[in-house]
Write a structure and sequence with these properties.
By secondary structure, the chain is an alpha/beta fold. It contains 7 helices and 10 strands. It has a single domain, classed as Rossmann fold (3-Layer(aba) Sandwich), CATH 3.40.50. Strand 1 and strand 2 form a beta hairpin. The longest helix is centred in the last third of the chain and has 16 residues. The site of adenosine-5'-diphosphate has 11 residues, from strand 2 and helix 1.
Length: about 230
């Protein structure tokens, strides 16, 4: 754990989050303790997904800033951010006709460049992510043909393949049956034990209390309990 909130790698400093003219949160500050398994809970539409988008630079605050490694995240290139943090959004649409292994491989995009194309490290990261989410046997299948639960595991594999020190997951257990929910949460707890910082929005309070090392309760765009 770090010395204080301002030393944490990821924090929000008095941010206002807004869509067009609709303000979802104002003057919101919070810090994600390094090495924590932070769980965010709160009623529907209170702004959990909006907060996760802001923490991962998909949404730039109208006021205030999100700080990653000491600087405003808005000043970092998207690819630079993607090497440090990975986001599993609440819902994603796969490109038509894509196969499982190719979708997971897209998680390696931030590690590639004109000079550094597909490598053995990429291959190994994809294989490891598919093993961890038990989708190896689906590798050659078309994503469109799979069930909701299988697809969710593929998205999780994609963000795992990104191999970032910080992982943000928006309701990752959605579409999973209870056995797979526990399996996923255990997997995240294992990654956390290895030193990764995990931030997850969960709707199940029992899961939240069981897995969180740091719990944030949100209501109407504010943190009401911590
Ligand atoms: N792209 C968007 N444009 C406009 N309003 C949005 C958008 N996304 C979410 N909202 C609104 O922002 C509020 C917070 O949404 P969200 O962050 O998704 O809440 P939660 O994840 O807690 O359910 C909701 O009222 C929602 O309707
Ligand atoms: Mg949401």
């Amino acid at each position: 754990m770090s010395a204080g909130p301002m030393d944490d790698r990821l924090h929000a400093d008095r941010v206002t989050l807004r869509y067009d003219r609709r303000t979802i949160a104002s003057d919101l500050s919070l810090s994600i303790p390094d090495g924590s398994f932070t769980v965010i809970v709160g009623p529907n539409a209170c702004g959990k997904s909006t907060l996760l988008r802001a923490l991962s630079r998909l949404l730039i605050p109208a006021d205030g800033q999100v700080v990653l490694d000491g600087g405003d995240i808005a000043d970092l290139a998207a690819k630079e951010v993607a090497r440090r943090l990975g986001l599993l959004p609440q819902s994603s649409l796969a490109p038509d006709g894509i196969r499982v292994a190719d979708l997971v491989a897209r998680g390696r995009y931030p590690h590639q460049s004109f000079f550094r194309q597909w490598s053995e490290a990429d291959e190994e990261a994809v294989a490891a992510a598919m093993r961890a989410t038990r989708i190896t046997e689906l590798s050659g299948r078309l994503v469109d043909e799979l069930s909701g639960g299988q697809r969710q595991r593929i998205w999780i594999a994609m963000v795992l393949a990104q191999q970032t020190p910080i992982l943000l997951l928006d309701e990752p257990t959605t579409f999973l049956d209870i056995a797979h929910q526990i399996e996923l949460l255990d997997l995240l707890a294992g990654l956390n034990a290895e030193g990764r910082t995990i931030i997850a929005v969960l709707h199940d309070l029992n899961h939240a209390c069981r897995y969180a090392t740091h719990l944030l309760v949100m209501k109407q765009g504010a943190i009401v309990a911590e």
